[in-house]
Amino acid sequence: MNLHHSSLRGDLRFENRNAIGRFRS
């Protein structure tokens, strides 16, 4: 279950970074 949680957290972080980059762009 830890792996699943880690994957979800990584995905969220990646999406957040993408959103910030798009917003900044």
Condensed summary:
By secondary structure, the chain is mostly helical. The chain is 92% helix and 0% strand.
What characteristic shape results from the CA principal axes?
A: rod-shaped
Low-confidence stretches: none
Q: Please, how many domains?
A: 1
Which strand-content bin applies to the residues? under 5%
How many H/I helical runs? Answer: 1
Tell me about the biggest sheet? Answer: none
**Tally of extended strands?**
0
DSSP helix fraction: over 70%
Following the backbone from N to C, one meets helices and strands in this order, namely H
Which class best fits the helix and strand makeup? Answer: mainly alpha
Tell me, rounded to a whole number, the average pLDDT: 71
Written description of the protein model:
This protein is mainly alpha-helical. It has one domain (1-25). The chain is built from 1 helix and no strands. The chain has one helix at residues 2-24.
